[in-house]
């Protein structure tokens, strides 16, 4: 029997990542195209359909090889209709019929899911969580996203807003304002943006010194990576910032685990590339705040799929649909 492929698509505001993925969750071919949000985003789905056809032609493969297209999209999704309710940076008007548009243009079955949920599905299917069916994936990037999987299924909640881990209130009083309109969200501390904000506060103090202070003096700014790099060589300010980030993140994850008791919590996104220096400190705080049986049964690990997680998880949507 000829091997069948799934198209996995990770839709971002700047680029669209695409991949042909086999039924074992392995990427066979991957590429990306710019996201064209002009003309109220009307070119986005057309460009996706065109690039799939072009790639098939390039590979000398027939359209019949494809069994469907799964997409991870930013923003809230109506899962019954595949409508995107509202996405600011893609140009679409509210309630854009994304699934219908893609099905018409690609002539393929289409499944749509929130992009953070797709990253969680990808790590479950063929990443750090392979072999597990109860896990939480936390993406630490410009913001903080999350996906919750219970018994192999995404937990969406009544309005599709489950897994908004970045908006757990970490500082109840006096926290920094978040883009969501609240204050004190975990995202204001544990995201790359939040880490830089904490660093700027520390570096604004008179007499700030050390390697991180020198980088700030030389470049006029610091990055989250600078903070972690300096913490590795025991820079005092960087270590203080790392300790604060790990405290809030470990505390939040412990409370998530106390509620859900997943087998695994996976940390992904750009900030997770800090590696063990972050993970080990988060584990220390997690252990302090987790209920005993949760502490003994829930593991924490770094994501392994990197930028491929979203496309692989999107492909899983089609595999799961075919299995039913």
Describe the structure.
With 324 residues, this protein is α/β, with parallel strands linked by helices. It has two domains: 5-121 and 308-323, Nucleotidyltransferase, domain 5 (2-Layer Sandwich), CATH 3.30.420; 131-304, ATPase, nucleotide binding domain (Nucleotidyltransferase, domain 5, 2-Layer Sandwich). It contains eleven helices and twelve strands. It has helices spanning 42-59, 98-106, 115-126, 187-190, 192-203, 211-219, 224-232, 236-260, 276-289, 292-297, 309-323; strands at 5-11, 15-21, 27-34, 66-73, 77-78, 83-84, 110-114, 135-140, 144-150, 153-154, 264-268, 299-302. The strands form three sheets. The chain has a five-stranded mixed beta sheet, sandwiched between helices. The chain has a five-stranded mixed beta sheet with strand order 10-9-8-11-12, with helices on both faces. Strands 5-6 form a two-stranded antiparallel ribbon. Helix 3 (115-126) crosses helix 11 (309-323), helix 7 (224-232) packs across helix 8 (236-260) and helix 8 (236-260) packs across helix 9 (276-289). It is globular and about 65 Å long. The mean pLDDT is 94.
């Amino acid at each position: 029997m000829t091997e069948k492929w799934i198209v996995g698509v990770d839709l971002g505001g700047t680029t669209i990542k695409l991949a042909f993925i086999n039924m074992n969750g392995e990427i066979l071919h991957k590429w990306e195209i710019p996201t064209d949000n002009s003309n109220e985003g009307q070119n986005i789905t057309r460009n996706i359909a065109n690039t799939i056809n072009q790639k098939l032609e390039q590979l000398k493969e027939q359209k019949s090889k494809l069994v469907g297209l799964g997409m991870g999209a930013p923003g809230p999704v109506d899962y019954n209709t595949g409508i995107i309710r509202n996405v600011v940076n893609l140009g679409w008007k509210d309630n854009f019929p994304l699934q219908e548009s893609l099905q018409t243009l690609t002539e393929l079955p289409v499944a749509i899911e929130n992009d953070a949920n797709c990253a969680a599905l990808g790590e479950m299917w063929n990443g750090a969580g392979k072999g597990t069916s109860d896990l939480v994936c936390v993406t630490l990037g410009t913001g903080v996203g999350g996906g919750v999987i219970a018994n192999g299924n995404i937990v969406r909640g009544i309005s599709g807003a489950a897994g908004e881990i970045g908006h757990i209130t970490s500082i109840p009083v006096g926290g920094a304002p978040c883009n969501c309109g609240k204050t004190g969200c975990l995202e204001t501390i544990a995201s790359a943006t939040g880490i830089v904000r904490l660093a700027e506060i520390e570096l604004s103090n008179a007499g700030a010194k050390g390697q991180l202070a020198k980088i700030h003096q030389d470049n006029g700014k610091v990055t989250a990576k600078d903070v972690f790099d300096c913490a590795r060589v025991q820079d005092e300010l960087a270590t203080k910032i790392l300790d604060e980030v790990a405290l809030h993140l470990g505390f939040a994850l412990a409370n998530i685990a106390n509620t859900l008791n997943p087998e695994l919590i996976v940390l992904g996104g750009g900030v997770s590339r800090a590696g063990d220096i972050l993970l080990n400190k988060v584990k220390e705080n997690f252990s302090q705040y987790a209920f005993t049986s949760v502490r003994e049964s829930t593991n924490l690990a770094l994501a392994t799929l990197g930028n491929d997680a979203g496309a692989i998880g999107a492909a899983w949507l089609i595999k799961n649909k075919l299995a039913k």
